[in-house]
Amino acid sequence: MPERNEARQVLPDVELHRPSEARLYDLFLGGKNSYEVDRRLFQEVLEIAPEAPALARENRRWLGDAIRWMVSDDVHQFLDLGCGLPAPPNTHEVALKADRQAKVVYVDNDLMAISHGQALLADDRSTFFADADLTDPESVLEHPVVTEALDLERPVGIILGLVLHRIPDTKQVRRLVAGYLAAVPPGSYLALTHPVNARDGSRLGEFATAVEDKLKESFPDLTFRAPVELAEIVAGLELIEPGLVDLTGWWPPAEQTLSPTGAALLLYVALARKP
């Protein structure tokens, strides 16, 4: 059993002069772990895309569905990369409800995420936190928390929920995903959510560009990708139906909570199995 990460007694130094993606996403989910600079950007995004908070909640809803699917296919351990700040329903809450023997390792290098994550999990014996950079698969997979908590000889659910858009180089993203998948056996899964921009001159493309440009003011490396680029990332995997789709295509109409012509079209999801 891996040693518990000791919760930090004092919140680590954080940058207060510029927004944090982790804190911004927490705001979209209704959280309170933010500063004025984050709240200002939050309001500016809402002016362009008022559905953004609902989209963030639907992203979490989808991830919950994906976790339950993986458990149903004999996956009982999860690696949540770039997990951000804790917000219910958390990965470990969903996984442990579906399987009391599940193991979850969260990975992030955001200072506030580390502090809050370690504090939340201080007394949890099934869930762990690794302070690491998801863009370096080797260092993540060799992290002592990961190697002691997870059995990489058994299937692993790799979760990349709204994180790959932080990496502007698509070739690097493909290498990164390939690195994680190479380390886990057949029967493992990749759960992916990613904002899209087809850049095709359509009204939807212009809407995506407006949201992307606003976020780039604070996060210059942020990159929405075209659906074809996301298809390249999951190439070679077995896509669970309905495949790589926007959120309006994942659930049947009766289960939709977002407008089929609005912000839900900007978020693509895919659950894919390693053959």
Automatic annotation (TrEMBL):
Matches recorded under InterPro entries: SAM-dependent_MTases_sf, SAM_dep_MeTrfase_SAV2177_type
Pfam families the record matches: Methyltransf_19 (PF04672)
Taxonomic superkingdom: Bacteria
Name of the featured protein: S-adenosyl methyltransferase
